[in-house]
Structure formats: C-alpha cells, structure tokens
Design goal:
This is Flavin reductase. The chain is an alpha+beta fold. It has four helices and twelve strands. The strands form three sheets. A seven-stranded antiparallel beta sheet has the order 3-2-6-9-10-5-4. The structure holds flavin mononucleotide (FMN).
C-alpha cells in the first residue's frame, strides 16, 4: 500500500463530524453475521508461544494465496505479531468452543493445556482443527485502532470429517445437516 493511500485512509478515519454508527449499533449488525472461528498462533523471537482467537480471518485471494485478519493494537499478542515472519491459522471444529474460549482468555498460558502440535517450522497448530494454514506475514496495515495483517499461505492441512465452529449472536454453534436448498 502506498503512503498516499495510507494518508487518505488516515484522513478519512480522522473525520469524526459525519454521522456514523455508535459501537452498539455496529455490534447489532455484526452479532447477526456468523463467522468461523480461528486461532492464530506463532512463536516469538524468544521462542515463546503466542496465540489468540480470531473471527476476523478472511480470504483475500486464491492466486496469489492471501488471507488476512484484524488484530487490536491493544492485544497482548500484537508485539509478537508485529515482529513475526510467519504464523499459523487453525480453523476450529464444532467441538472446540473450549479452545476458542481459552485462546481469548487474558492473563493465562493459553498453551499449557496442550492440544496443539508444533510444525517442523516451529509454529504451533491446534490439534483437531478442520484445517490450518501456515503463512508468511506480507503486510501489517494500521486501520483505526487495529492492524489488518495480510498473510501469504505457504502450507496447509485439512480434514473433511469435521464441521466448523461458528460464532453467531455471541454464542458458539455447530453446523447441522439442514441446507438452504
Ligand atoms: C469469538 C472471538 C473472536 C475474536 N476475534 C478477534 C479478532 O478477530 N481480532 C482481535 O483482535 N481479537 C479478537 N478476539 C479477542 C482476542 O481473542 C483476545 O481475547 C483479546 O485479544 C484479549 O487478549 P489479551 O488480553 O491477551 O490482549 C476474539 C475473541 C473471541 C471470543
């Protein structure tokens, strides 16, 4: 992203005089929007494991294979993510609401309970996840009080026997058998 585009973005974000959603109104919209649940994991420069729950993971493009997530700049994980060359993203299965809750709990060792395996390259991935991606961080874009972190996918693993965990209306859900059509 060029400096010019970033300056325009900053100028737009600084514009507080136009009518905009309150945080409550914003949440009223997004609680109605279902999201898959992922855990982002990495190993920091001092070999410490870092990880957090994220519903903000999006697919950006298949070619090149890019995905992104947003991370609050106030997060305890930001220091490690700001310096990371690579990280892993595990997409949780329907039975892993406890894992999601653990990786969103402040002030605990989120890895102490186990349930993860280190890849040969060092990043931990969550055991039993429906899929995972290991990727290289290609961009950290400041947007408001968060960073949009873009990642080029290098490696992956998938299983096709498990259904994903879905976060909707502040509650965890599993996908059942009923389809829309
Ligand atoms: C379902 C769920 C989804 C979340 N998604 C995000 C996210 O996309 N980005 C983010 O910065 N934090 C997200 N969080 C919050 C973080 O997982 C974590 O709880 C927060 O960063 C507090 O951790 P800290 O006290 O170690 O900073 C989510 C939490 C939950 C429960």
């Amino acid at each position: 992203m060029t400096a010019e585009v970033l300056r325009a973005l900053d100028a737009d974000l600084a514009q507080q005089d136009e009518v905009q959603l309150t945080p409550d109104a914003y949440k009223e919209v997004f609680r109605r929007h279902p999201a898959g649940v992922a855990v982002v994991t990495l190993r920091d420069e001092d070999d410490r494991l870092v990880g957090f729950t994220a519903t903000s993971v999006i697919s950006v493009s298949a070619a090149p294979p890019l995905l992104a997530f947003s991370l609050a700049s106030t997060s305890s994980s930001w220091g490690a993510v700001s310096a990371a060359r690579t990280l892993a993203i595990s997409f949780l299965s329907g039975a892993q609401d406890d894992v999601s809750a653990r990786f969103a709990t402040s002030g605990i060792d989120r890895f102490a309970a186990g349930g993860w395996t280190a890849l040969p390259s060092g990043e931990p991935v969550i055991d039993g996840a429906v899929s995972w991606v290991r990727g290289r961080v290609v961009q950290r874009t400041p947007v408001g009080g968060s960073y949009l972190v873009s990642v080029r996918a290098l490696e992956h693993g998938t299983t096709d026997t498990v259904t994903p965990l879905v976060y909707h209306d502040r509650t965890y859900h599993r996908i059942g058998d009923s389809t829309a059509i």
